[in-house]
Write a structure and sequence with these properties.
The complex is a heterodimer of chains A (237) and B (393). Chain A is of the alpha/beta class and 237 residues long. Chain A has two domains: 138 residues, P-loop containing nucleotide triphosphate hydrolases (Rossmann fold, 3-Layer(aba) Sandwich), CATH 3.40.50.300; 73 residues, no CATH class. In chain A, the strands form two sheets. Chain A has a six-stranded mixed β-sheet, sandwiched between helices. In chain A, helix 3 runs parallel beside helix 6. Chain A is 37% helix and 28% strand. Chain B is mainly alpha-helical. Chain B has one domain. Helix content of chain B is 67%, strand content 2%. In chain B, the strands form two sheets. In chain B, strands 1-2 form a two-stranded antiparallel ribbon. In chain B, helix 2 packs antiparallel against helix 12. Chain B starts with a helix and ends with a helix. The C terminus of chain B is likely disordered. The chains are: A alpha/beta (237), B mainly alpha (393). Chains A and B meet through helix 2 and helix 3 of A and helix 10 and helix 11 of B.
């Protein structure tokens, strides 16, 4: 399998604080890869840097063999890297349909097919297509955020904490959708604090601690790892 | 296909409105003996003309403040640029010495209208055609100059957010006003004096050989230009660009993450809004029949901001509706508050010069405190809404 995304020795600084201190990892075609870690470990900073919202201090980001380090978000999105931002960030005053269309902003072709596809994943969104995004419930907003990113026909879909602030049953639903999306061939980079859920769906996983990768392995391996169980899965025996 | 169908009722509506305006301003000559409201000199037509001009500026401000979420207060500055560009380009060469007499004539000896008269002749239909074409091109150039300046100051200014942007644009407008009154620029801007003698709305009235008006078009013209411009703005808002503007307003980070180039779209919105403010400024000059920097104060910007707020931030039809209400109240309906009123020997208390503004301020405070959404919120008046309303009944 060939690498879709390859990160080498990535360093990110905010002001004087080094949030990411030399991370290297890769994502291969058709995988679900997850980065897990505690608050402030540098997961989100990594993702924001890959999508171009933050400029890295050093290191390289290679997407499909092309160096995209330091490119602006528009260029990166146009290459097929879409992000579902942390905390959903849907457009509250635009309708559900308009939100979806913004996801495909850089595409010039016909969108009808993709809109139908998103509606087939999330029938709830179809029912509410004329409702303003801000009037949706948290779970529906997350569906919208995922659907919006799918509208860009991503080669790599990056999700920042899709389970944030959602009820367990809703989280379950979101993860089922992630697996469905994955099954049709989309590569997914998932960032989660909900390590249990994330490791269950992931092909491979990396654990980030204090801006560095401390462990890596398949989802299954890490689920059975003592340290991971203690630190991220809770003492469940 | 689907889209063009949706615009048919809107276009029909606009055409009907324009025809109605023509009828309204000529009705007193068709049917004699109507109440004096329908006289060509009645405040009704002053209000209609001014409101038509202001509604274009209000909608252009709404495009920026309401749809793109950029809080700019430079509208009067861009109007000033438009007004001066229009005036300087259309004052006939023959009148320039008279207008610029303090500065010994104008440094800029060119008039678009004269140029076309040179081609099509200055009398009769040729003259009329030259004037229409000249005015039209001058209006577009007025917009372009305002848009160009917006593009220039956009580079530093659009990196600012909310209140800082407002202060910077307000400052820009004030600086422009000072520069245009500068004596050294007199040969071009006529210093602090007004430029006049250019074609105004009443130049469009059709007259017979002896100068008597046959068909009045002086209210129709601002309505026509404003409707065209607002139509363009509405088309823009409904395009994917408009959607991107609203996405930026709603959530900059998310918009950026979806690939919307923030700075480019902000600049685009700023330039387009300023273009139409410039056209609005030129129309304002036509309305008052002079161009004078003194008129384009920050008070004018506030007035327009107020209209946008009353109409509803993010609603084009709200802005238009609010403009007509606002202008009608300030220029006509509340005028009586300014003059003393007696019932027999009883003098109605409080009514005196300036009281209108007191009442006005109170009304504005009430609106802002209790109806902060404005008349329309961010909804629009549409034929669809009417149909829905009917179905409900």
């Amino acid at each position: 399998m060939n690498e879709v995304l390859e990160i080498t020795n990535l360093k990110v600084k905010y002001g004087g604080i080094e949030a990411v201190r030399g991370i290297s990892f890769d994502v291969k075609q058709g995988e679900i890869v997850t980065l897990i870690g505690a608050n402030g470990a540098g997961k989100s900073s990594t993702l924001r840097t890959i999508s171009g919202l933050v400029k890295p201090q050093s290191g390289s980001i290679v997407f499909e063999g092309e160096d995209i380090t330091g490119k602006n978000p528009t260029q990166i999105v146009s290459k097929g890297l879409m992000m579902v931002p942390e905390g959903r960030h849907i457009f509250p005053n635009l309708t559900v349909l308009e939100n979806l269309k913004i996801g495909a902003y850089l595409r010039k072709d016909d969108l009808d097919e993709d809109i139908e596809m998103v509606y087939s994943y999330f029938p709830r969104l179809k029912e509410r297509s004329w409702q303003a995004g801000g009037t949706l419930s948290g779970g529906e907003q997350q569906m919208l955020a995922v659907g919006r990113a799918l509208m860009g026909r991503p080669k790599l879909l990056m999700m920042d904490e899709p389970s944030l602030g959602l009820a367990p049953i809703v989280v379950q639903g979101i993860f089922e959708i992630i697996q469905q999306i994955h099954e049709v061939g989309t590569t997914v980079l998932l960032i989660e604090q909900n390590a249990n859920m994330a490791l269950h769906v992931a092909d491979r996983a990396y654990v980030i601690e204090n801006g560095k990768i401390s462990m890596q392995g398949t989802g299954k391996e890490l689920l059975e790892n003592e340290k991971v169980r203690d630190a991220y899965l809770g003492a469940r025996g | 296909m689907k889209k063009s169908k949706n615009y048919i009722p809107a276009l029909t509506g606009i055409t009907a409105l324009l025809l109605f305006v023509v009828l309204l301003e000529n009705i007193s000559s068709i049917i004699p003996g109507l109440p004096s409201v329908f006289d060509p000199t009645s405040p009704l037509f002053t209000v209609l003309k001014k409101a038509a001009v202001y509604s274009l500026v209000a909608v252009s401000m709404n495009l920026l403040n309401g749809f793109t979420g950029l809080f700019s207060l430079g509208q009067a500055g861009f109007m000033l640029l438009g007004a001066y560009t229009y005036a300087i380009l259309t004052v006939p060469a023959a009148q320039k010495d008279q207008v610029y007499y303090l500065f010994g004539g104008c440094a800029f000896d060119f008039s678009i209208v004269d140029m076309f008269e040179g081609i099509f002749g200055s009398g009769g239909a040729g003259g009329a055609f030259s004037m229409i074409l000249g005015v039209l091109i001058a209006l577009i150039l007025a917009g372009c100059v305002a848009g160009f300046f917006a593009f220039l100051i956009g580079f530093p200014v659009l990196r600012l957010k909310s209140d800082y942007l407002a202060i910077a644009t307000l400052g820009f407008a004030e600086i422009l006003r000072a520069i245009f009154q500068w004596q050294k620029l007199g040969p071009i801007t006529n210093g602090a004096n007004m430029i006049k003698g250019f074609p105004t709305f009443s130049s469009f009235n059709i007259t017979d050989a002896s100068g008597n008006v046959i068909v009045r078009l002086s209210t129709f013209v601002p309505f026509l230009i404003t409707s065209l411009c607002i139509l363009l703005i509405v088309l823009l808002i409904h395009s994917s660009y408009g959607r991107a503007f609203m996405a930026i307003r709603d959530d900059e980070v998310a918009a950026e993450a979806m690939g919307v180039a923030l700075f480019r779209h902000k600049t685009l919105s700023f330039v387009i809004s300023s273009f139409f403010a410039g056209v609005g400024g030129a129309l304002f000059a036509m309305y008052v029949a002079n161009a004078q920097a003194k008129a384009f104060t920050s008070t004018m910007t506030y007035e327009i901001l107020l209209i946008v707020v009353i109409g509803g931030i993010g609603s084009v039809s709200g802005s238009v509706l609010a403009t007509f209400l606002y202008v009608a109240c300030s220029e006509w309906w509340l005028r009586f508050l300014d003059s003393e009123l007696y019932f027999g020997n009883f003098k109605v208390p409080l009514l005196r010069n300036g009281f209108r503004m007191v009442v006005f301020s109170v009304v504005i405070m009430i609106i802002v405190l209790f109806f902060s959404q404005g008349i329309m919120g961010n909804r629009e008046i549409s034929f669809k809404a009417f149909r829905k309303g009917k179905n409900k009944q």
